[in-house]
Amino acid sequence: MGSLYGLASFTNFISVNRNPNRKIPQIVSINPCSRLSIRTRNLTHIVRVCKAVELDEMSEGFFEAIEELERMTRDPSDVLEELSSKLSARELQLVLVCFSQEGRDSWCALEVFEWLKKENKVDEETMELMVSLKCGWVKKLVQGEHDVEDVIGLLVGMECVGLKPDFSMIEKVVSLYWDLGERERGVLFVKEVLRRGIGYEGGWKQGGPTGYLAWKMMEDGSYRDAIKLVIQIKESNLKPEVYSYLIAMTAVVKELNEFGKALFKLKSFTKTGLISDLDVEDRQLIEKYQSTLLSDGVRLSNWVIEEGGPSFHGVVYERLLAMYICAGRGPEAEKQLWKMKILGKEPDTNLYDIVLAICASQKEINSISRLLTRIEVTSLLNKKKTLTWLLRGYIKGSHFEDAAETVFKMLDLGVYPEFLDQAAVLQGLRKAINQSGNVETYFKLCKRLADAGLTGPCLVYMYIKKYKLWVIKML
């Protein structure tokens, strides 16, 4: 005996012919002569519809029901009410399958399902069958390049008979549009779903159409498009789910990160002479683009807090922190650290160090002072790690006098900076001498490094000789 689940695989297409007694949206118009006629009870026609069924097991009531429903002279519920005593549960399921086939009246299948539900005849197996059928209908409409309105009409029709489209169904349609490269239709579908409230029961809890489409965009690397989508939908007086704002904030972080990588490559090309230096207009455009991204992120964060409430504060501060780190905004990033800490969501130690390095590169003295207070109660190993981040921040910002002071602090604690860091500070100080002529910090650093056994006096001697100064042998 064939499986009822196997029957669903024979669902190929749908057509909805409007019943004058029901206002179910017309999805696809099919010429009535294309429908399979079963009035002669020719078993060959039934085989085309239900190949997996043992035909000799079907009763006269089944054929009678199909014939009556085919005539469309009476409401399907009246037909089924009259013949229900002659039909088994399996045959009722077969009626659903028959009227879900290509060229058939899917409207009738929906009517049959509605009657089954009203009569409390929808068991788990029948529900799974109907879900499979409706997925097939939606897939065929999308792949057949029908208007978005047709797909929406089908979902509304399902809702009318109590077959409510859930988020998984909405998600499936969005995926189909996206995988077919129909991005504009996917966006239009999401907007229509929100406008009509399809599948919306008390709010989207753990996901929704806007966020899912934005996530699909992000997966393809279209971060800016994902941000614009969520903002545009929100500003169109539709109601995207709160989680879509968080997804868009993640897109802001990723876009800022990619933008930062592009800027780094651009700067490396200018240093090697492959391209000319950026002019004032270029720099203004770069600053404007980054500021726009940050502004979008802040606006999204405000919407999360307004609509999501206190339970979302922690994740919002995390996203804002990541945004400001990617943008290299030290003080703003530090502010989010303290917000997280006050909220009881202790940031990772590495985040403190990263923000410290950013602040050091910008020589944000107050922020640096506050961030350094935490190393007083940490281990020596963690002190070295934090001071190394501070040192590299100063080096990146070309604050070599401050970098040298950091090296002194490390040596006082008995920890040694990495060789490349030492070399970078010495090189920076040498370049500074060409401008200021002040050799004191350079000399002091060389002596401290030599005392620690990290370098020899020859470095001091060779350099200072250039300024006609001599150094007594350093021990």
From TrEMBL:
> Which species is this record about?
Smallanthus sonchifolius
Q: Write the lineage as a comma-separated list.
A: Eukaryota, Viridiplantae, Streptophyta, Embryophyta, Tracheophyta
| Protein name (record) | Uncharacterized protein
Question: So which domain of life are we looking at?
Answer: Eukaryota
